[in-house]
Amino acid sequence: MSNVEQTLSIIKPDAVERNLVDKIQKKFKDEKLIIVKTKKIQISKEEASEFYKVHQTKPFFDRLCSYLSSGPIVVMILEGKNAITENRRIMGATDPKNAENGSLRKLYGISIDKNSVHGSDSPDNAKKEINFFFKD
Ligand code: IDP
Ligand code: MG
Q1: Labelling 2: which of 44, 82, 87, 128 has CA 20 to 30 A away?
Q2: Closest ligand to residue 88's CA
Q3: Band of the pLDDT at 59, cuts 50, 70, 90?
């Protein structure tokens, strides 16, 4: 079984603002993930709350939603073998302080809030998140 999957990736406002989009997209391609679709958008705080609703009971929820809606983001569908876990590996740990050497969050993350990228964490969530941003 080849297990070709699709997953949703987001380049968060801190990384878009620092002109890191090309570098991050190059990293995905170097790691053999295909960027099937990509678009630059800005979402409202309400949309961010919907997207992150699994975290609605967390103490950082309000800040998280304010942050994701604070500036332009780049959303992408990535495709490749084991794309969901591969993308998580390429991103590194949630807190850049704990992220593996060479991972995107280690390279570019500023803090646990401004950690530069999002990636779906399971096949179910990948489907939901892709559908959230790319409905057609
Ligand atoms: P993930 O992005 O690595 O999947 P999640 O646990 O799904 O991490 O959390 C979503 C986002 O919420 C993280 O990327 C991070 O920006 C933020 N976050 C997670 N945990 C904390 C925390 O303890 N304090 C502040 N922000 C957090
Ligand atoms: Mg997550």
Answers
A1: 128
A2: 1
A3: very high
